[in-house]
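Researcher: Structure for this, please.
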Amino acid sequence: MGTTVDNMALLSRNGHQPSSVSPLRVVVVDDAVLSGPADGQVLSWRPLLLEIRIQENELDYLNRVANCQAKRACGAGVAWASGQIVDHCDGLINEIIHGMMDAHTKQAVRLDRLFMLVAIVGLVMIPFNPMVGMTFVMLCMLIGWIVWLVAQQRNRKLATLLIQLDDTHDARVDLICLLHIRQDVLRGGVQ
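Model: Predicted structure, token format:
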């Protein structure tokens, strides 16, 4: 049984309101679903949309601390626990995104090498049919170059996302503080 936290990851820079289309979706799931503390996948590159899934038990303790501190009306405790929640999530997100960036770079290098090896076949063909051989060589080099550029462009998008994540750290801590305080006020108002 999992719960989705939409738009927790990014807030717009003006007004600190959740952006209408967030490129990062964080999903909190129970440990039966994941083999590690978190995993992630790219759902779309245009527009960029990543889904990061984090185990519930990784955040459960910190949520309980924040709720307890909110009940005690200890603002510093709520702020500390909220900061720990954001730091924990950001650490996992950073690790996953850097892993994706490394994977893109490695794949681009592998494909570039493969097309360079295939281009050698074109070089062998040049003495027999110069036009076809040169066309084959140039096409292979072009494809390798395009693969490399696509990987670099995707890595730039992911790096921009990490910068936005870092820029919104304090705003997200404030948002989680407000959510815990609001929950406590609503619970107190009902009783």
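Researcher: Any notable elements?
Model: Residues 1-19 have pLDDT under 50 and may be disordered. Residues 78-190 form one domain.
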